[in-house]
Amino acid sequence: MGQKSHSPRRNRRPGRRTTRLIGGVFLVLALIGLATLATFGYRAIHGLLNNTSEKMRIERFLTPVVMFDPVPYASVQEASSDTILLTCIWAALLDESAQTYPQDDMGMVILPGPDVEYQAHRLYGDAALISHRTVDDYENIYMYDPDVNAYRIPVVAKVAYIPKVDHIIKSGDVLTVRVGYVPPGSSWLTGFNQEATPSPDKYMVYKLKKSRGNYTILAVDDDNGGLNFS
Description:
The chain is built from four helices and eight strands. It is of the alpha+beta class and 230 residues long. It folds into two domains: 15-67 and 159-230, no CATH class; 74-158, no CATH class. The strands form two sheets. It has a four-stranded antiparallel sheet. Strands 5-6-7-8 form a four-stranded antiparallel sheet. Helix 1 (16-66) crosses helix 2 and helix 2 crosses helix 3 (113-124).
C-alpha cells in the first residue's frame, strides 16, 4: 500500500485561551486606569472642598480683626493695644458658642472682662496681654466698668471691612493667607447678608499658626506682591 501523503502543517491561529488572556490583561489595565482616575478625582475634589472649608473657617476667625482694618505689624507685641482690645471684644460678641449677653437700661450689651481675655488667647495666643479700659473706635465708645469687670457695648457698630480669603500658602504649621478686604454695608450685619459680595478694596497678608485645628494670628502685612499666591 502506498504511503499517505501529508499536507504541510499550517500555523495555528491564536486560540480562545490566548484571546481571553489578552482581553483579561486589557480589562485589568482599564480597571486600574479607572481606579487611578477615580482616586485622583476624589483627592482633587476632597482637596478642593477641604480648601474651601478652611477658607471659610479662616474668614470667620478673622472677621473681628479685619473689621477694624489693623495697621500691619510683624508680631502681636507690635500691634496697637486698642486694636487688640477692640478685636477681642468683637470676637466675643461674634462667637457662635457665646451666651446671649444681657443689656442694661440704655440698651448696651454687658460683656464680661474674662470673655474678652479668653478671646485674646484664642485670637493671638499667649502673645496678647489685655489691659481692661474704656476704648473707642472713632464712632463708638466701649465703656469699661471696673466695679463689675465688664464692658458696656453699643448694639450695632460700623466697620471697615469683612474678610474674603483669596489664597493660602502652607509651610508646616504656619499659614500665609492673602485676605481680600470687602467693604460691608452700613453695619457689620449687612455685610454677611448681602447676596452679591462686592470686589475687595485691597488685600492684606496674614500669618497664622495652626495647631490642633485652631488658628492664632502671628503677623499682618501689606500685600506688596512679593509672594507667589498663584
